Amino acid sequence: MDFTPQSLLVDAGLIGALLVLGTLLRATLKPLQAAMIPASVIAGVLGLVLGPNMLGLLPFSDQVGTYSSLLIVVVFACLALTDDFNIFKIGRSVAGFASYGVLMYAVQVAVGMLLVLLVLGPLFGAPDSIGMLLFAGWAGGFGSAAAIGTVFADAGDPEVQSLAFTAATVGMLVGILGGVIQAKIGATRGHAREFAGMKSVPADLRTGVLDQVAPRPVIGTHTFSGGTVESLAVQGGIVIGLSAGAYGINLLLGQLLPGIAFPMFSIAFILGLIARGLLTATRTKRFVDADSLRSISGTATDVLVVCGMVSIVPSIVANHWASLLVLFIVGLALCLVMGLVLAPRMMGDGWFERQLFTWGWATGAVSTGIALLRIVDPRMNSRTMEDFAIAYLPVLPVEVTAISFVPLLVLAGASWAVVGIWGGIALVAVLAAVAVVRIGKRSPDPLAAPVGADR
């Protein structure tokens, strides 16, 4: 059947209905609240079961799997316009946190690829692309899964997208269930100083519905008069323009260098950085509202999760079940060793709260990390979130370069280069952590707020 504007309308209507239904289920069903499963994931599961790859009850078009590749372009364009990349803001008080985050991400890249080269390939005949799924689905989450799946789909291997979204789903479940278990064990051993159990998680985090009486956060701020132009139209226009520009440049590069595939989301990210520089230079950056762009980015992410999960082909996952099982077991062991063995030595005071937050982030989503943090630190006295805002800065380039270049290296047959590069980054992170610990012992950071000082 030909794809028409009406087909797009039907797809959009089905996706919207699934998101609304997922939100209602999260708001009303206690088991879903206890598991803290995002509404977009609930919607994605429903879409997968009812969609064309299983029961076939929902009339999605055959293009629904391609939407994720466009939506991730929007996400990266927004990222370039809203996030601060000034790594010089990092002080010694959060350097251990930062090095731990870099290590967590780099190790998932290097170990996943090393595992497929030495074990999964020889034993199960797994392709090298399986080695990317650990960081793509766990540390990267659904956004990275969409980005990497897109690169391989453009290169003629659409199976990777189904596998990547499967990895992201498993990672999210591992993060939630494993995090709750860790929180309870940590409380019994005295690591979690303010453990209050699931009851400490605010109602809005459990149900997903904000308090109807208390002041609620705004989605964005108007920068233009509504009589002239709707502000959201301008913010959306900037993002869509950058995304379309990335598509145009991608077509041009394809004509000039037909043997090389350039990720469109990476081009959008670069264009966003250029646009940000121009806006700053011309003093027009005040017309861009970061909160509105983050709302657009979040909306694109929710929709791409649904689209990605709907497009999962169960038969493809079944063909690689043994490789995936081994990969996930190794990933779980890796995260546990880092959280329970390395974190106490790298992050000092408040290490348990910080590693539990990082556990949630490193298995799929920052929102999972926040929910777990509220269990062990309901009053946010550990300053984990404040420090993470700065500590994430050096992680960001590691993440962006991994998403952008690891797929290209794998497609070029340079999988061992991935192991070497990101293994080297992991080693640098370890050395940085050692240096921070030694410096901290000699001269404690006077600006660091002691954990528990205001308890």
Describe, in plain words, how this protein is organized in 3D:
This protein is mainly α. Among the domains are: 1-62; 87-205 and 312-442, no CATH class. Helices cover 71% and strands 0% of the residues. It is built from 19 helices and no strands. α5 (92-124) crosses α17. It is globular and about 60 Å long. It starts with a helix and ends in a 13-residue tail after the last helix.
Shape: globular
Q: Work out the oligomeric state of the chains in this entry.
A: single chain
Number of strands: 0
As a percent range, the share of helical residues equals over 70%
Q: Mind telling me the C-alpha Rg?
A: 22 Å
How many individual helices?
19
H/E element order: HHHHHHHHHHHHHHHHHHH
Overall mean confidence score, pLDDT: 82
Structural class computed from helices and strand pairing:
mainly alpha
Low-confidence stretches: 445-455
CA(first)-CA(last) distance: 64 Å
User: Largest sheet, described in full?
Assistant: none
- Beta-strand percentage range: under 5%
Main features:
455 residues, single chain, globular, mainly alpha, disordered C terminus
SSE topology sketch:
Layout: H1 5-28, H2 30-35, H3 39-50, H4 67-82, H5 92-124, H6 133-139, H7 141-154, H8 159-188, H9 203-207, H10 231-256, H11 264-281, H12 290-310, H13 314-319, H14 321-347, H15 351-362, H16 366-376, H17 384-391, H18 395-411, H19 415-442
